[in-house]
Specification:
The structure holds 2 protein chains of 2 kinds. Chain A is mainly α. In chain A, 66% of the residues lie in helices and 1% in strands. Chain A has a two-stranded antiparallel sheet with strand order 1-2. In chain A, helix 3 packs across helix 12 (324-354), helix 7 (214-238) crosses helix 9 and helix 9 packs antiparallel against helix 12 (324-354). By secondary structure, chain B is of the alpha/beta class. Chain B has one domain: Rossmann fold (3-Layer(aba) Sandwich). In chain B, the strands form 2 sheets. Chain B has a 6-stranded mixed β-sheet, sandwiched between helices. In chain B, strands 2-1-4-5 form a 4-stranded antiparallel β-sheet, covered by helices on one side. In chain B, helix 4 (118-131) crosses helix 6 (151-163) and helix 6 runs parallel beside helix 7 (181-194). The radius of gyration of chain B is 18 Å and the shape is globular. Classes of the chains: A mainly alpha, B alpha/beta. At the A-B interface, helix 8, helix 9 and helix 13 of A face helix 2, helix 3, helix 6 and helix 7 of B. The structure holds adenosine-5'-diphosphate and magnesium ion (MG). Residues 14, 17, 19, 37, 39-45, 57, 229 of chain B line the site of adenosine-5'-diphosphate.
Chain lengths: 363, 258
């Protein structure tokens, strides 16, 4: 039975009525208070408790460390602000020189004597490709993660997990080249099939040619973000307390019901974080999309016709022959990408925050 | 609704390690049976063999026969989830689902059974919480997280969650060992009430508790570390604590070993 130290006023009265087998004389529960200060100052001069309290040290590791962390934190802030100032200073003149609306114009001609460029189609393509990629990648990634954490034999799970982590180490240009040279064929066939049977949906309308499309870009992106989401989710699922899994099983849950009752709710915040990391990667992915997309500058929900573009892909494609205004325009588009990523992250945090009461007590 | 449990030559392994050997005992309906004995003698292992939670661990298996009202729970054709619904379990550490509210915790088992109707769930939750002596303390905050309760309340919440599905048997593995004395008393009182309806088997390290709450007591022990646990003596609690027939039992309950 727990031996709770009663407050000395209670000793021998209320508490001892309950703890009959721990009855003790009043006052016996006063614990030696002298122990406390010595344990807080190892190496201090006052071991043994005689004399006055030891003086606070003027300079110690504690302070040095605090100074160091403060300096590091400040340095990061300064660097970020400096970069931001530089980017804005470059972007503003280009935006001023723009002769059409930056928001609505569908095209990118910043190097002309009369610069014309608009972010709309690029921002749209960026979000569309990332969302499509996640729609494909998240269910697959969660399925694999659950298989690895709760179904596969431990050995096999570890081996497969290692393979998937390896996939994350492949450079994106390799994915891009593979997508452009090999994967575009099957995707073109799939697109033709989708067009034949689901052509009445705007997503699969149009009449080709197929291949270098949003669909190809999104599928390549999906493969690229799969490892990061799988790997993090698997870690999160594995950390579900055994006690909760057993509680569900003892209530008569099947394994899948146990996963739904104990594992998925517990892992939810972690999975959201993993998906956000994947989304961040998808939004910022440059070269793989520059290689696989058909590069057009119009806003369209058609995902199977050749075309599509994203902010990052456009930067990679257009930076080479950009003049001063051209570079400024690309920087402005980069700031836009930054803003999109920021909004996505804030939204994700808000989602996680809403259930904080529950997730915190889960920790 | 309470049922009789009969264990015949139950032997349980963790991989190659034999944790308990040839346990034979019969537990009558609507009684409280206490399992006592030194640490590592296989009390938890035996308890977990009864509702087939033992086999959840990789490499763990059970031999022998365990019947509930004559039906073998290890029969090939028996659905293991049905066994566990019939035989509820309360664990040593309170383990409410951390992401669920108090209400959702209580009805978790019913939801697993496919109960969807709100009114049914609400009634069942109130009934179970009342039976677990927790209703008055939580009725105004059913939507709050179950993990926000005190340890004793959490354990009673887990008891409510267990009895909400109306099992026949309730197994408790040291349900009070992580609790303060007042919560312990509350749970002991609860056991008195529950035995009107359920067959209860409780593992406890606390002799006073065993003698207070149980009708029958089973004493488990091991020869030395590495040996399997065996049932040494099983009798009325009164007899075990006043006049045990085996020397080893007497040594244990008088504190001479263990
Ligand atoms: N998960 C496990 N894996 C391997 N051995 C275990 C496991 N759990 C318990 N054991 C062993 O089985 C024996 C019985 O344990 P247990 O049933 O927990 O004893 P008790 O509950 O009486 O303290 C002990 O020797 C213990 O070390
Ligand atoms: Mg135990």
């Amino acid at each position: 039975m727990g031996d709770t130290p009663p407050r000395s006023a209670d000793a021998g009265t209320g508490a001892s009525r309950v703890i009959t087998d721990h009855a003790r004389p009043a006052g016996a529960s006063a614990r030696p208070a002298e122990d406390v200060p010595t344990s807080r100052t190892p190496g201090g001069g006052a071991l043994g408790g005689g004399g006055g309290l030891p003086r606070r040290r003027a300079f110690g590791a504690e302070r040095a460390f605090r100074g160091l962390t403060l300096a590091a934190g400040t340095a990061v802030l300064v660097v970020i602000v400096a970069i931001a100032v530089f980017l804005v200073a470059k972007a503003v003149p280009a935006l001023r020189a723009n002769t059409v609306s930056f928001w609505t114009f569908e095209g990118w001609f910043p190097n002309d004597p009369e610069p014309r460029f608009g972010i709309g189609a690029l921002a749209f393509g960026t979000v569309l490709s990332a969302v499509l990629a996640l729609l494909v990648a998240v269910p697959v990634a969660l399925g694999i993660a659950l298989y690895l954490s709760h179904y596969a034999p431990r050995r096999l799970g570890n081996a497969l997990g290692f393979l998937i982590d390896l996939l994350a180490a492949v450079p994106s240009v390799v994915f891009g080249l593979w997508g452009r040279d090999y994967f575009s064929g099957p995707v073109a066939d799939l697109s033709a099939w989708l067009n034949r049977y689901f052509g009445w949906l705007p997503l699969f309308g149009g009449d080709g040619p197929y291949g270098a499309s949003m669909l190809l870009g999104a599928l390549v992106l999906a493969i690229m973000v799969l490892p990061i989401i799988t790997s993090l989710s698997r870690e999160v699922f594995r950390q579900t307390p055994t006690a909760n899994e057993e509680a569900a099983l003892a209530l008569g849950a099947t394994r899948w019901e146990m996963i739904r009752t104990a594992v998925l709710p517990y892992g939810r915040p972690g999975v959201i974080a993993a998906v956000m990391l994947g989304l961040g990667r998808a939004l910022g992915e440059t070269i793989a999309l520059a290689l696989t997309l058909g590069i057009t500058f119009n806003i369209s929900f058609n995902i199977i016709d050749n075309g599509g573009n994203t902010i990052a892909a456009n930067i990679a494609n257009a930076f080479g022959e950009a003049n001063d205004t051209g570079r400024g325009a690309l920087i402005a588009s980069g700031l836009m990408l930054f803003a999109i990523t920021l909004i996505v992250n804030i939204t994700a945090r808000a989602i996680i925050h809403r259930r904080r009461e529950f997730t915190e007590s889960a920790a | 609704m309470a049922k009789r449990i009969e264990a015949t030559n139950v032997t349980a392994y963790y991989g190659a390690f034999k944790a308990i050997e040839n346990i034979n005992m019969t537990v009558e309906p609507k009684t409280v049976t206490a399992l006592i004995g030194p640490s590592g003698c296989g009390k938890s292992t035996f308890l977990r063999s009864i509702n087939r939670m033992h086999e959840v661990l990789p490499g763990a298996r059970v031999e022998g026969s365990l019947t509930i009202d004559g039906q073998d729970v290890y029969d090939r054709d028996v659905d293991v989830t049905a066994v566990r619904r019939m035989i509820g379990m309360v664990f040593q550490r309170p383990n409410p689902f951390p992401t669920m509210s108090i209400f959702e915790n209580v009805v978790a088992g019913l939801r697993l059974n496919g109960v969807k109707k709100k009114s049914v769930l609400t009634d069942a939750a109130e009934k179970a919480l009342r039976a677990a002596n927790l209703w008055d303390e939580v009725k105004d905050r059913l939507g709050k997280p179950g993990a926000g309760l005190s340890g004793g309340q959490q354990q009673r919440l887990c008891i409510a969650r267990t009895i909400a599905v109306e099992p026949q048997v309730v197994l408790m593995d040291e349900p009070c060992s992580a609790l303060d004395p007042i919560s312990t008393l509350a749970i002991e009182e609860l056991m008195f009430q529950l035995k009107d309806q359920y067959t209860i088997i409780i593992v406890t390290h606390n002799m006073q508790q065993a003698s207070r709450v149980s009708d029958r007591t089973a004493f488990f022990s091991i020869e030395k570390t590495g040996d399997p646990g065996r049932l040494i003596e099983y009798d009325n609690t009164q007899k075990i604590f006043t006049n045990p027939s085996v020397k080893k039992t007497e040594d244990y309950i008088t504190g001479r070993f263990g």
